UniProtKB/TrEMBL annotation:
GO biological process: response to hormone; sterol biosynthetic process
EC number: 1.14.14.17
Cofactor: FAD
Top-level taxon of origin: Eukaryota
Protein name stated in the entry: Squalene monooxygenase
Subcellular location(s) of the protein: Membrane
Pfam families according to UniProt: NAD_binding_8, SE
Catalytically driven reaction(s): squalene + reduced [NADPH--hemoprotein reductase] + O2 = (S)-2,3-epoxysqualene + oxidized [NADPH--hemoprotein reductase] + H2O + H(+)
GO CC term (a single one): endoplasmic reticulum
Membrane topology: Multi-pass membrane protein
Family named by the database record: Belongs to the squalene monooxygenase family.
Amino acid sequence: MTGACSFSPSFKFLKTNVSVKRCRILAEDPVAWVPLRYPVSAITPGASGDGIRRTKGGRRPGCHRSFDSFPPPKMLLVQYFMGAFVAALLGFALLPGLRGRKKKKWGGGEGNSAGTRNGGGGGGTEVIVVGAGVAGSALAYTLGKDGRNVLVIERDLSEPDRIVGELLQPGGYLKLIELGLEDCVRDIDAQRVLGYALFKDGRDTKVSYPLEKFDDDVSGRSFHNGRFVQRMREKAASLPNVKLEQGTVTSLIEENGMVKGVNYKTKNGEELKAHAPLTVVCDGCFSNLRRSLCTPKMEVPSHFVGLVLENCELPYPNHGHVILADPSPILFYPISSTEVRCLVDVPGQKLPSVANGEMANYLKTIVAPQLPAQLHDAFISAIDRGTVRTMPNKSMPASPYPTPGALLMGDAFNMRHPLTGGGMTVALADIAVLHNLLTPLRDLSDSSALCRYLESFYTLRKPTASTINTLAGALYKVFCASPDEAMKEMRQACFDYLSLGGVFSCGPVALLSGLNPRPLSLVCHFFAVAIYGVGRLLLPFPSPKRLWVGARLLSGASNIILPIIKAEGVRQMFFPASVPAYYRAPPESHR
C-alpha cells in the first residue's frame, strides 16, 4: 500500500537560536560546507537509524578533515601537556567546592536553595511548572536544558497508574527526538506501533503509518503511562537547575492583573509561596487552576472502560486495533511484551455499575460477542480478574484569555477524544513551539516582551493542534453506530475508503499519526470519504431514495466536522498568517 503513497512529511518548525559549527568536507562530498550539528527540527529523515542526515557513502556531514590540516606530532604533544597542566590546576581549585556541595535530591524538597522553596524566587526561579505529568516533565527538562531555573510542583511524585496516555503517535515520537527525550521510551518495555487494524462486521483491514522516509527507529510507541512519566521526571530532575517538589498548588498569585507565582502546600501540610516571571499550569484534565486562565467549554461524550489482557496475541502484532462495534469503538494495543490494553468506549454520562456487577455483565453480553475470536477468551479472563477501571473522555477546545506571566498546557489547556491517541503529540508539539519562542528571550522578567511571546504561542500552535483535535472528534462520531441510514453509510464508507490503500489510507493515517498535521488535508480527506460514500450509494443505478440518503450523508458529514472546526477557530486553523502574532520566529537580532 505504501508504494502508491505520495505523502511527503514536512518539517517547518520555527528557527531556533542554535549556534552551528561548520567545517570543510572532503572534495568528493556534494556540499562544500554543511552544519556539524543540526537542530533536530532540521533533521532530514534518512535510513541510517540515528536520525542524522548523511552525505554520500553514509557519512555524517561535517565529520571529515583533510589530513594536511592536522598539526605536527610535536605540536600535538605540547598541546596535550599544556591541557593536562591546566586541567590539574582547575581540579585542585574546584575540588573543595565540589566536596562541599550536597547531593541534589529528587522530589525530597531539599534540592535548590531555600529561597526558592520559601517563596519570592530568592533562588532565581525563572519558571514554575505546576504538574509533572508528560507535559510538565517534558517542559521542565526542555527549559532546564536551556539553562533556566525551573521549579516543578507535583501533587504526587509516585508512579502514576492510568488507563490513558499509553500510546504515542509517530509525530509525538519525532517531537520527543526534537526535545531530546527519546531515551525516555527505552527500558520501560515499550512496544513499537506501526499502524492500525480496523474490524467491522467480520471484515478487517490494516493501515500502516507512512514511515518510509524516516529512520527505522521512528514509529509509534505504546507503554505503561506511569513508567514513561517516571522516566521523564528522572530526566528533568537530572538537571541541576530543575527542582521537583511534591506539593499541591492551591492558587495563583496575581498582582495588578499579572501572575507572579503560586501558593501551595507541601506534602507535610506547610503553606508556602513561590514566585517566578512565568508560571505554566500543566496539572492535567482535572485541573483546579484552569478557570483562572481560560473559559472551559468541556464536553464528556463518553467514558473508557479499561482492562488489561495478559499473554494475549493480537491479530496484527505491533498495531493498534479498532473494533467498529455497536454502540461505539473498542481499542486494543500492546503496553508491554506480555500485556494488551483494552479500552471499551461507553457513550453517555452514565456507566453501568462496577460494584454490583452490571459492568461485568455489560462487557460479557454486549461487548465480548463483537470481538475477534482471537481476543475473546483473554477479554473474558480480564473481566473475571476484576480489574475493571473507568475514565471520562473529555473534549475541550483551547479557549484561553492571555494572562501576563502565566500559560496553560497539556490536558489542563486542551483536550480531544482519546480515540486517536493524539493528546501527548499535541502537548509535545506545544512545548516545541514554546521552546522556540522563548529561546531568544533570555530575561523572562521583562514582562512586556514575555507577554507578547506568549500571545504568539496561541497562534503558532493552532494548525497542528486543531488538526489532531478535529480529526479525533470527527472520527469518533463517524465510528459510533447510529440508527440513521445516512450515518451507517458514512461509517461503512470510511472503512471501505481506508481499505483502498495507497493515498486513500496513507493520507488519513498521516494526519492521525501527527506526521502531516495540515487542516486543509484533513478537510479534503473527510469530504472525500463522504463523496465516496455517495458514489457507492448511486452506483450502479441511482434511485430517489438513494439520492435522498446521499444528500443526508453529505449533510451529516458537514454537521460533524463544521461545528468542530468552528470551535477550534476557522481563521486560526486555516489562515494563521492573518492572525496577529508578535513573533513567528526568533527576532533577527537573536538568531
